[in-house]
């Protein structure tokens, strides 16, 4: 299914009100809910452990993709699966054995994704694709919302789409996605877009209509 999906990142939500924020973005048309997990080691920021993800779960009616920006990642896969992730995405750069990591994610019964930092070439995923439901092309250096889109990501998306061929694998782009950057990414073959600041700007749980306008604008 190559229809376009918008996955708002709750990194840009009100941290005191995640349940209602998730309900609001879904009511406003979000296709997926994107959860950014950071460990203060692989990336210079800290966010959500498995208990937080477990608390989000009952509020998510759509599909929760959990983006693990943590290293090592293998020891935590089971815990994030049990917390209720629908898809678990690990970074190629998180350790020497991304192939084993994808096998471990698949073993939990969850969908599996591999993420590439901006400095990692598209070819990194070549021998991993048969274990992937999604490739995440990072279009900023992971760690923070609100950063500037890195234009070379478009070419990387094109190369990954070519490698995927006729396999059923999503390409997600994460970082600096907004109405100005999304067009060339769609043309290059991406079908799933994470957006934090571009979705949450101007809205709130009390005034959620801007979330919907922002989602439709992307
Ligand atoms: C970056 C995260 C992103 C981020 C996107 O480390 O993986 O999901 O929150 O935020 P924006 O859309 O504001 O760049
Ligand atoms: Zn993310």
Explain the layout of strands and helices.
Blueprint: E1 5-8, H1 18-27, E2 33-38, H2 50-56, E3 64-69, H3 77-83, E4 87-91, H4 98-107, E5 111-116, E6 134-138, H5 153-164, E7 170-174, H6 182-188, E8 192-195, H7 197-200, H8 209-217
Parallel strand pairs: 1-8, 2-3, 3-4, 4-5, 5-6, 6-7, 7-8
Helix pairs in contact: 2-3, 5-6
The protein binds D-xylitol-5-phosphate and zinc ion.
How would you describe the overall organization of this protein?
The chain is an alpha/beta fold and 218 residues long. It has one domain (5-217): Alpha-Beta Barrel (TIM Barrel), CATH 3.20.20. Helix content is 30%, strand content 19%. The protein contains 8 helices and 8 strands. It has helices at residues 18-27, 50-56, 77-83, 98-107, 153-164, 182-188, 197-200, 209-217, and strands spanning 5-8, 33-38, 64-69, 87-91, 111-116, 134-138, 170-174, 192-195. It has an 8-stranded parallel beta sheet. Helix 2 (50-56) links the parallel strand 2 and strand 3 (64-69). The chain is globular. The two termini are 19 Å apart. The model has no long low-confidence stretch (mean pLDDT 98). Bound molecules: D-xylitol-5-phosphate and zinc ion (ZN).
Strand content: 15-25%
- Helical residue percent band: 25-40%
Give Rg in angstroms: 16 Å
Oligomeric grouping of the chains: single chain
Identify the strand order in the major beta sheet.
1-8-7-6-5-4-3-2
Total number of distinct structural domains? 1
In sequence order, what are the helices and strands, one letter per element? EHEHEHEHEEHEHEHH
Number of helical regions = 8
Contiguous runs where pLDDT drops below 50 for at least 5 residues: none
Small ligands present: D-xylitol-5-phosphate, zinc ion
Mean pLDDT: 98
Protein name: Ribulose-phosphate 3-epimerase
GO molecular function: D-ribulose-phosphate 3-epimerase activity; metal ion binding
EC number: 5.1.3.1
GO biological process, one term: pentose catabolic process
């Amino acid at each position: 299914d190559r229809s376009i999906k918008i996955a708002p990142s709750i990194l840009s939500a009100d941290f005191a009100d995640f349940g209602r924020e998730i309900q609001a973005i879904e009511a406003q048309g979000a296709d997926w809910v994107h959860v950014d997990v950071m460990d203060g080691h692989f990336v210079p920021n800290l966010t959500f452990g498995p208990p937080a993800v477990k608390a989000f779960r009952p509020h998510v009616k759509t599909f929760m993709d959990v983006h693990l920006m943590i290293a090592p990642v293998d020891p935590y896969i089971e815990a994030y699966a049990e917390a209720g992730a629908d898809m678990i995405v690990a970074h190629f750069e998180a350790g020497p054995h991304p192939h084993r990591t994808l096998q471990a994610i698949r073993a939990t019964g969850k969908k599996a994704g591999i993420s590439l930092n901006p400095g990692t070439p598209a070819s990194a995923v070549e021998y991993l694709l048969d274990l992937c439901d999604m490739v995440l092309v990072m279009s900023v250096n992971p760690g923070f919302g609100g950063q500037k889109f890195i234009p070379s990501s478009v070419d990387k998306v094109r190369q990954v789409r070519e490698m995927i061929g006729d396999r059923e694998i999503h390409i997600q782009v994460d970082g600096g996605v907004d109405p100005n950057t999304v067009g060339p990414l769609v043309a290059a073959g991406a079908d799933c877009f994470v957006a934090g600041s571009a979705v949450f700007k101007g809205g709130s749980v009390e005034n959620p209509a801007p979330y919907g306008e922002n989602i439709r604008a992307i």
